[in-house]
Amino acid sequence: MSAIWFFEDVNLFNMLCPHKFKAYKKGHDFNQYNKEDYIYFEEDHANKVYLIEKGKVKIGYYTEEGDEITKTILTKGEIFGEKAILGEEKRDEFAQSIDNTTSICPVDVDTMHDLMRDNKPFSFKIYKLIGFRIKRLERRLELIMFKDARTRLIEFIEDLSEDYGTESNDSGKVIIEHPFTQKEIACLIGVSRPTLNILMNQLKEEDKIDFKRKQIIFKKKLSNVR
């Protein structure tokens, strides 16, 4: 099942950014962020939705013990803060730039509702996206809590293949061109970077995958090799 935000090559920024619409263009600005800048914090008032023009944004929260949990990392064309559309009043997560050239399009919730009301088929896709993302995040958190590190990595690679993978001419091979660093992948599956390196090299030695910077090639369905 393909990620909804790539469904039919939909780029949410291109579809919904107010500067594309004459009625909303006046006075509309982009916000620029450097690496580690926060876009919003937990408990902030939820009155905007955000579209990523370029760069990367980490969504996460802090446990009562102060540990940081990374829920997802989003890239160009994606939306975040979307629970404000459903009536969320305060943020239950933080959003942080993890790129030095992140550009964000902030959209007031009322404006977003207007844009969605004018495009009902796309409005349906937005709500479907929200539901899909919630289910995926719940599954990822369950993996972190109940599955071993190898299983978490394998399922993460399978998710990457759905979002970024293309079939190779070699039968049974899928090439994944993804935007994540090893440090970011380690955060997403809840392991240290050295542990991630060990697991990746184990899978490579078993001839299950090959990899280099921001590319993974796997040679058969990984769920068969746990």
What do you see in this structure?
It is built from seven helices and twelve strands. It folds into two domains: 142 residues, Jelly Rolls; 79 residues, Winged helix-like DNA-binding domain superfamily/Winged helix DNA-binding domain (Arc Repressor Mutant, subunit A), CATH 1.10.10. The strands form three sheets. It has a four-stranded antiparallel beta sheet. It has a four-stranded antiparallel beta sheet with strand order 2-7-4-5. The N terminus is likely disordered. It is globular. It has 226 residues and is an alpha+beta fold.
Give the topology.
Elements: H1 12-16, H2 22-25, E1 31-33, E2 38-40, E3 48-54, E4 57-62, E5 68-74, E6 79-80, E7 94-97, E8 102-108, H3 109-117, H4 120-146, H5 149-164, E9 165-167, E10 174-177, H6 182-189, H7 193-205, E11 209-212, E12 215-218
Antiparallel strand pairs: 1-8, 2-7, 3-6, 3-8, 4-5, 4-7, 9-10, 10-12, 11-12
Helix pairs in contact: 6-7
Widest β-sheet, arrangement of strands = 1-8-3-6
Top-tier CATH class of the largest domain: Mainly Beta
β content, as a range?
A: 15-25%
Helix fraction?
25-40%
Shape: globular
Tell me the major beta sheet.
4 strands, antiparallel
The CATH level-2 architecture of the largest domain is identified as Sandwich
Rg: 18 Å
The CATH superfamily name of the largest domain is Jelly Rolls
Average pLDDT level? 82
Distance between the termini: 21 Å
CATH topology of the largest domain: Jelly Rolls
Number of helices: 7
Low-confidence stretches: 1-10
How is this structure best summarized?
This protein is of the alpha+beta class. The protein is 36% helix and 24% strand. The strands form three sheets. Strands 1-8-3-6 form a four-stranded antiparallel β-sheet. It has a four-stranded antiparallel β-sheet with strand order 2-7-4-5.
